[in-house]
Amino acid sequence: MSEGPRAELGTFLRRRRNEVVRADYDLPPVGRGRTTGLRREEIAYLSGVSVTWYTWLEQGRDINPSRQVIDAVAVNLRLTEAEHDYALGLAGFAPPPRPVLAEPAPVPLHVQHLLDALDPAPAFALTPHWDIAAWNRAYEGLFPAVREAEATQRNLLQFIFTDPWVRSMLPDWERTSRQFLAEYRAEAGGRAGGPQHVRLVGHLRAESEEFSRAWDAHEVERFASRRREFLHPVVGRLVFEQVNIVPQDAPDLHVVSYLPLPEGDTLTAAARLLES
Fold first, then answer.
1. Helices marked H in 30-80 — which ranges?
2. Under 8 Å CB-to-CB from 125, ≥6 apart: which residues?
3. Separation of alpha carbons 258 and 238, rounded Å
4. Residue 187, pLDDT above cutoff 70
5. pTM of the model
C-alpha cells in the first residue's frame, strides 16, 4: 500500500472506528467484553455501503468514494467538524462552507390564515428540514417555547429530543420521539448528504444520546394520522388526532394540526390554551 492521502484516510477512519463506545450505538460488548470499537460490517451497514467496499476504504485502496459516502461515514463515526473536514480533504474534496443557521422563510400569508382558522386546535407549519416556520395561538399555548426560542433553533426534532417541557408533556415520549424520527428519515432521503441535514444530525447526536440510539436504529416510516396525548401542566390532559396537510400551492410545507377528540373534554381544555 503506497503512503499518501488515501492511506492516511484509511488509518484515520480505522482509528476512529476503534475508539467509539459501543453502548453509544446501543450495541452490546464484543469478544471478551470489549466495549469500544465498531466492527467494519457495523459501520458499513450504518453508512449504507458494502463491507468489502468499506474495507477497501480503510485499507487505502485506489477507490473513489463520493462526498456523500464520506459524509455518511463521518456522521456515523460521530466525527467533529474539524475531523469531518480532514476526512473530506484526504478524499480529495474541499470542506464545505459551514451553513449559517438561517431563519425559515416566512410562510405564505394564506398558510398563516389556515393555521389561525384552526384555533383552538394547535397547528404549525414545518419546512423540509422540520423547522417550525409558523404556528397558531393554540400551539403556542401548548408549547410556549416555540415563541421564546430563537428562530434558527425552532426545529421540531430538536424540541422533541432536547426540551424537558416536551418530554414532560408526552406520556409516550419514547414511542412518539422514535416515530417522529422515523417519519423525518422517510422524508429526508433525498437530502441525506446535504449540509443542513448533516449539521442537524451531528448537532442532535452531540446533544442527545437517545437521538443517537434512535437514529442508528434506521427506522423509516411514512406519516399516518394517529392519536396523540399530552399532559399539559395548566389545562391538563389533552387527546388529539394528529393530521398532516400539504398545501398544493406550498408543497414544501407540511401543516401539522392536532384535532381535539372527545376524550377528557379536550375541546374545552384546548380552548383554554388560547388563554395561556
1. 40-47, 51-59, 67-76
2. 107, 111, 115, 132, 133, 134, 135, 253, 254, 255, 256
3. 10
4. yes
5. 0.68
